[in-house]
Structure formats: C-alpha cells, structure tokens
Write a structure and sequence with these properties.
Length: 109
C-alpha cells in the first residue's frame, strides 16, 4: 500500500508574501534533504497543481522552481487582485499559502 504525507507535515516552512504589488510568492522550505527530495521527486508541486489550487491560468504561474542548495521550492504567480487594490483581502500576501497545506505527497517505500 502506498503511503502519503501532507506537504504541511514534510515542510518546515510554508509561507507566502508579495513579490511586488502584482505577484505573489509561495515558499516551501525543508529542514532535511530527505523530505525535500521526496517532494521534489514526486513532481506533485507543478504548474497544473498551482493553477488548480489558486484558480489561475497557466500563463499566470510565472515560476515553479526547486532550489537544491536551499532545500526549497519557490512558486511565483500573478496576484488575483493588486496589493492594496479594491477587493484585496491580504495586502501583504501573507495568508495565501493555505491551499498548499493539505497537498498530499506520495511516499515511496
């Protein structure tokens, strides 16, 4: 039977922040190499997942990048509403990582 773990349980840091007034950056950072490699090798964190979770078009996902030296995955997307614009509910972009919390990552035996 295949096992799986929530991204929240594998990563040490899940955070979001503004990358300027029109972009949002999501960071997934790991304390240990094993957890980082499990997530990276799974391929689960990709453009399609980000589109689905954040309801953005593929061209609005600017980057999904693995940084091996930092054991981190960085995602940059277009903000749905400009920071501070009418209808913006999170001017700093600090609460936008929540959709990533329950992403399930398969664990190879």
């Amino acid at each position: 039977m295949a096992r799986a773990a929530r991204l929240y349980d594998l990563a040490t840091v899940l955070r979001s922040k503004n990358a300027g007034p029109f972009e949002l950056t999501l960071d997934v950072i790991f304390d240990d190499e094993e957890s980082y490699q499990i997530v990276k090798r799974s391929g689960v964190i990709n453009r399609e997942l980000v589109c689905r979770l954040y309801r953005v078009r593929p061209e609005e996902v600017y980057h999904v990048v693995c940084f091996d030296a930092a054991r981190a995955i960085k995602i940059t997307i277009k903000r749905p509403v400009d920071s501070g614009g009418i209808g913006d509910t999170d001017v700093y972009g600090a609460q936008q990582h929540a959709p990533l919390i329950d992403v399930m990552i398969p664990i190879e035996d």
